[in-house]
Amino acid sequence: MGDLLTERAVLGVIATLAVLGLFVMLCRARRVSTSVEDAVMDMLDRMSKASSDLRAGLTQEAADKATPHLREMLRCVAVAITDEEGTVLSWDGGANDHYEYLRDTVARAINNCHKEHVDHRKLGCELQGPCSLHSVVVVPLVVEGDVAGTLIVVSGVASKRQIRMAEETARFVSTQLELEVVQKQRQALAQAEVKALRAQISPHFVYNALNTISSLIRTDPGHARELLQEFAEFTRYSFRTDGLFTTLADELTNIHRYLTIEQARYGSRLNVRLRIAPEVLQVVLPFLVLQPLVENAVRHGLAKKPGGGMLTITAEDNGNEALISVEDDGVGMDPDRLDDIKDAHQTGAHVGIGNINDRMRTVFGAEYALVVETAPNAGTKVILKVPKFARNVLPNLNLGSQLTDEPMTNEQPAIRA
């Protein structure tokens, strides 16, 4: 999906440059009074505004916002956008009463998926005297192989340049609409990955947590009630259905609940140290990327080490990024096994680590893949870089909690599931 998004972005740039190049040629041919540089700047500004409007999808509201910019770009009489059935979503400019004469032309463009060009003489216009509509180009807007609508360009003069400009502008519009589709697909994929991750986390942890709580009901009912409340809050957060992103503060709060339950199980075998810089608590990251790493450290690193060990969670400021690490001094692994990270979420070797790696790369880019440092009997350290600001990455707002730098300790004896 990341490669697909990159390909669409490249297509968008190509379409933009094509429109821009043709626009410059058009300006020169007309010997406009302003400089070419000013015209190019104006063109870029309008293309940018039209792009952001079209990224909302092919709706009436988006079309109403985009058509004025497209008309100014093309310097034509009117620009209109229709849906896939030929219904006008927006018409900016003059000659809008002529759409009745264009219905058959629009239908042919949609059915044949090919541009249609007609001049005034063939429209059957009954207007007495000069008509502002001299030439019309109807170009289908193709999104992922299907016609999503059409772009109608009405001109006062007929020229090959105007036809070419209409074609390139339609390609530009189609590319923006495709990027909107890809964005929706990426969000759907991310939601599916979160669901898959929840399914991996829940079976073993739920069983062990409930087993731990049940063993304390008679011996320490007060502690059992506290753990049950932590478990309820943990599951409520982990299985929430809204939002693909969260703040570091909220993620750490949920990790605190998880570790409170696990410490009741492992007792003094599990020691935890938090080193959190307050200035990075509001950094936004994908939902459920840290808790699975903490769970891996407990299950695969410390639980297998005689006597247990120390889990250290660090988050520090690093300019435009936050550096976050989850480290344990457990059994570690052979570095050669790190190649299996990409398939770990499919084989079950580690809870969702491949899933997390894919999500980080998809959301932030390939340079934000996980970094893993490990060796046999030397523990494991997983490092994440998270940008402080990223486009379309917004948290599902919840109240965070205050975290301290003091180690969490629990002297309860280990309880084995």
UniProtKB/TrEMBL annotation:
<dbReference type="Pfam" id="PF02518">
    <property type="entry name" value="HATPase_c"/>
</dbReference>
<dbReference type="GO" id="GO:0016301">
    <property type="term" value="F:kinase activity"/>
</dbReference>
<dbReference type="Pfam" id="PF06580">
    <property type="entry name" value="His_kinase"/>
</dbReference>
<dbReference type="InterPro" id="IPR003594">
    <property type="entry name" value="HATPase_dom"/>
</dbReference>
<dbReference type="InterPro" id="IPR029016">
    <property type="entry name" value="GAF-like_dom_sf"/>
</dbReference>
<keyword id="KW-0808">Transferase</keyword>
<dbReference type="InterPro" id="IPR036890">
    <property type="entry name" value="HATPase_C_sf"/>
</dbReference>
<feature type="domain" description="Histidine kinase/HSP90-like ATPase">
    <location>
        <begin position="281"/>
        <end position="390"/>
    </location>
</feature>
<keyword id="KW-0418">Kinase</keyword>
<dbReference type="Pfam" id="PF01590">
    <property type="entry name" value="GAF"/>
</dbReference>
<dbReference type="InterPro" id="IPR010559">
    <property type="entry name" value="Sig_transdc_His_kin_internal"/>
</dbReference>
<dbReference type="InterPro" id="IPR050640">
    <property type="entry name" value="Bact_2-comp_sensor_kinase"/>
</dbReference>
<protein>
    <submittedName>
        <fullName>Histidine kinase</fullName>
    </submittedName>
</protein>
<dbReference type="InterPro" id="IPR003018">
    <property type="entry name" value="GAF"/>
</dbReference>
